[in-house]
Amino acid sequence: MSDYENYAKGSPLEVKVISKRFGIPNSASIDVYLQHDGYKALQKALGMKPDDVINEVKNSGLRGRGGAGFNAGMKWSFVPKQSSKPKYVVCNADESEPGTCKDRPLMEYDPHQLIEGILIAGYAIQSQQGFIYIRGEYRYLMEIVDRAIEEAYARGYLGKNILGSGFNFDLCTHTGAGAYECGEETALLNSLEGLRGYPRVKPPFPAVVGLYGGPTIINNVETLSNVPHIILNGAEWYAKLGTPKNGGTRLFCLSGCIARPGVYELPMGFPLRRMIEEVGGGVLGGKKLKGVIPGGSSCPVLTADEIDVAMDYDSVAKAGSMLGSGGVVVLDEDTCMVKVAQRIAKFYAHESCGWCVPCREGTAWLKNLLTRFHSGAGVEDDVDTGLDVALNILGKTLCPLGDAAAMPAISIFKKFRHEFEEHLRLGRCPYEKRTVSVA
Amino acid sequence: MSEANSKSPFAILDQPTRPDDAGRPGPYPRSPALSPRVNPQGEAVTLTIDGKSVTTAPGTVLIEAARQVGIEIPSYCYYPGLSLQGACRMCVVSIEKMGKLQTACTTIVSNGMVVHTDSDEVKNARKAMLEFLLTNHPLDCPVCDKGGECELQDAVFRYGAAETRFLETKQHEEEKKFSSLVYYDRPRCILCYRCIRVCDEGMDVNAYGIGFRGGLSVIIPNRGEHLECEECGMCIDVCPVGALTSGTYRYKTRPWEMTHVGTICNHCGDGCKTTLAIRNNQILRANNRDHSGFNGEFLCAKGRFGWDFVNSDQRLTAPRIKRNRQLESGSWEEALSTAAARLNEIIAKSGPDSVAVLGSNHTANEENYLLQRFARTILGTNNVDHHRTGDFSSLVGALTAANATDRYATMQDVFEASSILLLGSDPTHEHPLVAYQIRQAVRRHDARLYIVNRAELKLRRQASLYLKVEDEGAAVGALAGTGAASPELGTLRERLSKENDTVVVFGDALRGEQVTGLVRWGLTLPGKSRFVALGDYANSRGAADMGVLPDTLPGYAAVADAAARARFESAWGAEIPAQPGRNARAIFAGIESGEIKALLVFGSNPVRSFGVKPETLRKLEFLFVADLFPTETAEVADVVVPAASFAEKSGTVTNTCGQIQALKRTMRKAGTRSDFEILVALAAQFGANWPYRSSEDVLKEIIAQVRGYAIPLPALLVGGAVVTRPQGNPPPLERADLIFSARDSLFTSGSISRYSWALNSLDEAKKPHGTIF
Description:
heterodimer; A: Rossmann fold; Ubiquitin-like (UB roll); de novo design (two linked rop proteins); 3 domains; 5-stranded mixed beta sheet; 18 helices; 43% helix; globular; B: Ubiquitin-like (UB roll); Rossmann fold; Dimethylsulfoxide Reductase, domain 2; 7-stranded mixed beta sheet; 27 helices; 29% helix; 16% strand
């Protein structure tokens, strides 16, 4: 439990819904879960009509916590009622976005909350099979989740005739093999089927043609973990926790140059400035703030002047960035923004699956260009070329990975052009200590 | 979000659940491949593309709809007939009311759609994609095989992006030799994945995959660094750039230096159209360049690479005449006059029935027609036969008797079939196009395939039902209700009774009465069931149709039928012997017993095909052979004349489905003569003055005289495949062992494949016959 210390400090500003059981000894066990309202929501849901469950989730304003922020209940409602092929529920636990680390505690400390959420989702769309697709690097979490699944089977929460309702549901975990791309829902489905993790052409959307051709809903761990609370406490209660159209709370992962990094559950619409200054204790070492990545590495960077923004999907979008997966990365005045752009580009070039042209060739080009530029071998045209390359990727790729690579680069090229010019002027990085070579 | 209107196009893209899926054991069927499924029954859709109004079938993808009104949208990953993948992003178009640019290859048309394919936004996007593609492309166009016919070059020509802003180091990798016929150059590869899909979806071999990830992605073959497959070369054909190159063609020429001639492949009986590319009187390449004909872009290893026997330096180029027990070169005049003199001598001494003629199943219809005329009217014997590889006679007889000669299935019928019954053949090896058509019927039209065969075969993967039987003939008897049916056969009968318009494809395992029984029963199946008899070689069907048979005149008229004889006698102005002649087996027995004293062999190698011992042939007083190569038969001949190959002559051939197509002369081989020229000259030696100046004159006579061949000549001359529907009353099959397939594999083609470097260079050719790749 020592790991928990990091989360336990918490902040008095937190509103704990899905993280409320974090810190309770043995919170991952089914006994502890049952002592704390465990599987009550499932019981309630099984007494409702499946359509009512979907409506409840729809009305709660729960939006996908994976990054795209699509209304979860709406997504479920696209699943056809009649299908000749089996329907599936897939939990996307392929958390790989740099700066994001929220699904990890959810699975580590409260796996039954997730299982209950999946069960309710399964009941809502009348599916009988669920999968939890866990990131390859999270193998140790798989053991915890597997144990929880075993417990749930032993107590009759999974398997045949659950709680005497006649509803059957099976659930198992599957591990990824270390590809960021498999967090994209259709690439995840391919990977789950044993194919290469390439995205599929949409439409058809997975809700209609998904896993093995059957209608499938794919939701993030955090999204599904919220479901039991919505069912238990009602859509209205949940919606009121956040702002209009942005129901509930959200786990924010504060990292980077911040005094108290960690995962904090805060209501939707919480101001970013307060999040950094009050929840996170300000910039590390009292330095000046240079910028913030508000939702994981794929979001455009907000400058220090742009942080007076409410952290919900619509407000952040208005401010020119994205709430994404809730990974708030704080950058202080000593951070080289060219290096930030290079590091992010390197990540996306490495993680590009290579399926479509702009992402495959564009991310590699950006990485090479920025690496050369940061090393001091840049030329004047590079800034415009780099921006153009990123703009040429944007909106032209098959899946959102291309956009994810392009957006942070575009924001840095545009908002921090002066830093690029400084590199050109000096012929080196102004933020790195000068190494003196002794002949 | 567009998820909301989840109604319209998905139903078309989603693969319908097949009734068979439910009962299918084992692994899940694959995820729905996104294959465009046009639904011609639905209501037409009208949209606007670049201001032009287009009305098309629902389910059509935008790129095809645009093509229908002459608007070309560039694409690399899109390839008609293969699954959709939206990977190259070249076909982006802007659609009004949709925010982002959309890929035309994956967007299904809908009513009222307004599309722009030529706006600045679209042009800039395409230019950007080209710039991306060119970042790591080596731009070695001056030495690239594809230069001049490269789709990447063409697009850069149209959209620019020739100037590069890419200052980084290009990735380089050495070229890889996947096999003796397929080379891969990674730097040139634009990763459109056409090769992977054509190998998987088209060929069902799946020999290619992708290695590594992102910018390092690379096409990898299935055996380490090596390819083990059917070597069809389809991957090379569909490659839009010079990444996959042909082992027989690479670095030989520039494409514009060649002359292209469309003709028909001369190997198996499927009759694929092919384009021979010639430079300096040498064939350099074969591919069906314009994708015309029923084979589209399809060619197998033999069609695409196995033409090189034509260029072989072992070709006979001068007549050879036996002097002092030695074959020595001689002149054409000497060879032909010697032959005529010896034959006249033997006929005068022992009568015309001491002479026999063996025809070919590779030579043209016109030559076959003249050959039997030569035997019947000039030599005066019906002792004429060939290596029969499928029982066409029985099929014609049965269909004629049932008054159902509209039931010959064409190659297109196989492709479009909803139900196929395959009996006693392995088309994957013996009829690659038939196998391809069957696979496409199953994949694209959800056809059900039923197989009754004695051996395991690859098409089993596509089969709804596969029955392994001891004897296909007995199985047919049981199916038709004359023998005891096993429960499995009962199931098959029941399944077929629920199908409509079944296409019945049968091989040499069914002969004589069995074919008659099959046809009689097949005609009772629901709908318009149709039939294909499979015969091995390019003109196996034509040889039978043209009456290279001892008991049958051209058009399956019985020799014993006086009226039929009279018809040909008046056309030829000569008498035809009334007695049916000896069949091939009887001819060889006759040689053994000394009754047959002279044999003429045209384009055949009985030592290999019939297993006749050379010693037997040595018993002949005179053996005349016309062939391309010094075969085992030619070696024991008294006179050997060098024949022209299919590439060196004109004429027509009839494929195994009865579709007639034109051969076009592509090149000349010094010293050789076509069988047509040989036969006309030989006839002249006997004092006959045949009225034929060209093979076209013979064709005109065939059209007039041979029942079922009354075809429109122009359709043939413009490169079409014209269906023949022979009808006749051929006598019953004399003995079953007259009909046997040579069981050629994907890499053999009777005797001629021995002279192909390409086919013999393949490791796969050394594997046991029938190996499944």
